[in-house]
Amino acid sequence: MRIDIISVVPDLLESPFSHSILKRAKAKGLLDIVVHNLRDHTPYKQAQVDDYQFGGGAGMVMMPEPLAILIEKLQEERKYDEIIYMTPDGNVFNQKTANRLSMKENLMIICGHYKGIDDRIRQHFVTMEISVGDYVLSGGELGAAIVVDAVGRLIPGVLNDETSALFDSFQDGLLAPPVYTRPADFRGWKVPDILLCGDPKKIDDWRHEQSLKRTQERRPDMLEGMD
Predict the structure, then answer these.
(1) Cα separation of 132 and 222, whole Å?
(2) Cβ neighbours of residue 47 under 8 Å, at least 6 residues apart?
(3) C-beta of residue 52 within 8 angstroms of C-beta of residue 23
(4) SS3 90
(5) Domain 169-223 classification at class level
(6) What is the pLDDT of residue 162?
(7) Could you give the count of Cα atoms lying within 13 Å of 216 in the half-sphere of its Cβ?
(8) Cα separation, 98 vs 111, whole angstroms
(9) How far apart are CA 28 and CA 21, in angstroms?
(10) Mean pLDDT within 170-190
(11) Does the pTM exceed 0.70?
(12) What is the domain class of 2-152 according to CATH?
């Protein structure tokens, strides 16, 4: 998979993609992440990429021309399955969307900044709009990093144990159960006996019960409409 990211502050994305799972995914050749500095593609002096709003109002807007130039340049090189715009008024990102995007080949992500991008870019280029929550960030870069991380770890071969992603929270509509590791007795706090019984079916049944219980307690909204 290849993911192209358009940003006006690309340095914000250097660290998230240089460590841990995403670093290994890139090293294995399973994921190619390319961050483009929008300022390198503007026809305006002093690398200008934003201007005042028509009609007045506080805050600057990212201009359409630099974005269109870069988007069309990238489109000449490859076909994109989705052109994603990170914006607070997009559809809230979830595991179902991450699963769907992980099956794509080429993605482009536009990081908004200031008051966002000229709406004509949204109308004529963007195919998907994503929000990472009901709050406003200084720009779309951190949201883009979240999307890339959630999607990238699902690519087959990225995780050492390919089954582990299948048991993450939200994959089956439930939160993940509690997990434990050695020692079995820490300060008198003991691991549940069922996890030490050696019976895979009993352990799976316990984990499902715990997932259901945790979801009922913490996210009852996730159970609405479930049988």
Answers:
(1) 17
(2) 39, 40
(3) no
(4) strand
(5) mainly alpha
(6) 52
(7) 7
(8) 18
(9) 11
(10) 90
(11) yes
(12) alpha beta
